[in-house]
Design brief:
By secondary structure, this protein is of the alpha/beta class. 39% of the residues lie in helices and 14% in strands. Strands 1-2-5-8-9-10-11-14 form an eight-stranded parallel β-barrel, surrounded by five helices. It is globular, with a radius of gyration of 21 Å.
Length: 450
């Protein structure tokens, strides 16, 4: 098959799914012109460093912790909200790295996850048919026709919110907030009564002993970058192709094209058509890429897309993120692993245990069970072990807030409890307590003695 020459706008000649119908062209053109002239949000060198780390995850030398909001909300682009999400990611990472004895690549679903694919263009809200909410970068969740009408100027607002988020994250991760000897400060008071809370305190004490030992032999944590700073990469689904094209720039040192809206970009299960616009766009940028794979996959189609996105079969370029559901993973994952292994593809295998385990409760709320999330991850691990392949990471939707959106966990939340603090505009997320509890389970699975 002949592949046409790629350019950052060549996707426009391909069918593009899940794109908003923007009203009028003038506002869209003005927005894209402005975006194309703004500074990049991330840099090519950062993307290259992440790609090298992901290459290590292919062989099991690193673990990918990719997590964050289902869909970022403009109103939650605040210092406290960003800090609390960062805190829970750092908590999870230190548990997995120390107890699991594995280097952790921390990738946030943040600073760009402002758009969401939807199963229908419209939805009924209080008996009124309205355009579906597609994320704050497209429209508002408010239930009026005016609010739900797509507005391209929201993409510009999304850029500024992403820039503000990145600025604060870099300040936190490089300015001492994430220093290992401040791990006690990350500990949330709400964990004290939980089983995970005591485990976390025990882990904190072990880390303190290690830090004290290093200090005793002359290593000062405050002046050791590896102990005083962390690297957090950003990622989002590359859904709005107008936005992604406007932020795609040529790297002056290598001549390669990078989508500078985020370090890692992924393509969704709904938009991974071989001859679709999303695959066409992503095949030409040099960022590390992810691809979601649900139970309705066709193995030959998956192989063709893998070869289109990673024709040189470079380790670290592509992460396959499976989202089958706890009840289906055993039926769909083994044959996928065998075919990919038979072809010799160098990919990172990551488990998304969220999207295949969503249900609607009797109160009309979407939710997920902590036990199903954990069960899918454990099954994912067991299948990789039996197939001789590497389970490389997890892809989670979570928040640093005390939300009540997923049932289960140490507090044994039930559907009847979810009304207490159900905040999400899209999909249900693990709260901070559930996230740290899950991290201990991950560390146990990763421990070399297991």
């Amino acid at each position: 098959m002949t592949i046409n020459k790629w350019s950052k706008s060549s996707w426009r000649s391909f069918p593009a799914k899940q794109q908003p119908v923007w009203p009028g062209e003038a506002a869209l053109d003005d927005t894209l012109k402005t975006l194309s002239q703004l500074p990049p949000l991330v840099f090519a060198g950062e993307c290259q460093t992440l790609r090298a780390g992901l290459a290590e995850a292919v062989d099991g030398k690193a673990f990918v912790l990719q997590c964050g909001d289902c869909a970022e909300d403009f109103s939650r682009c605040t210092g406290p909200d960003i800090r609390e999400l960062l805190k829970v990611i750092l908590q999870m990472a230190v548990v997995v790295a120390y107890a699991g004895e594995k280097r952790v690549l921390k990738i946030g679903r943040m600073a760009g996850q402002y758009a969401k694919p939807r199963s229908s263009d419209t939805e009924l809200v209080n008996g009124v048919e309205l355009p579906s909410y597609r994320g704050d970068m497209v429209n508002s969740p408010d239930a009026t026709l005016e609010a739900r009408t797509p507005d391209p100027r929201r993409m510009l607002e999304g850029y500024y919110r992403a820039a503000a988020t990145l600025n604060l994250v870099r300040s936190f991760t490089l300015g001492g907030y994430a220093a290992l000897d401040r791990v006690q400060a990350w500990h949330r008071a709400s964990l004290d009564a939980l089983p995970a809370g005591q485990k976390y305190e025990d882990l904190v004490r072990q880390i303190w002993k290690t830090i004290n030992f290093m200090t005793a032999i002359g290593l000062d944590p405050q002046h050791t970058p590896q102990l005083n700073q962390v690297t957090l990469y950003t990622s989002h689904e590359a859904l709005l192709l107008d936005y992604e094209e406007a932020l795609t720039r040529m790297d002056s040192t290598t001549g390669g094209w990078y989508d500078c809206s985020g370090h890692m970009l992924w393509i969704g299960d709904r938009t991974r058509q071989l001859e679709g616009a999303h695959v066409e766009f992503l095949r030409g940028v040099k960022n590390p890429l992810g691809m979601k794979i649900g139970p309705n996959y066709d193995i030959d189609n998956i192989k063709a897309i893998v070869e289109r996105l990673n024709p040189e079969n470079e380790a670290g370029r592509l992460t396959l993120i499976t989202r089958f559901g706890a009840d289906k993973v055993s039926g769909y994952l083994p044959k996928l692993l065998r075919e990919m292994q038979r072809e010799g593809y160098q990919v990172v295998w990551s488990c998304d245990p969220m999207h295949g385990n969503t249900y609607q409760n009797e109160f009309g709320q979407k939710s997920r069970k902590f036990e199903d999330i954990l069960r899918e991850i454990k099954t994912f691990w067991e299948i990789h072990k039996s197939e001789g392949t590497v389970a490389g990471g997890v892809h989670l939707e979570l928040t640093g807030d005390h939300v009540t959106e997923c049932t289960g966990g140490s507090r044994q939340l039930l559907d009847k409890h979810l009304h207490q603090n159900y905040q999400t505009n899209c999909d249900p997320r693990l709260n901070a307590e559930q996230s740290v509890e899950l991290a201990f389970e991950l560390a146990e699975m990763l421990h070399p003695c297991k």
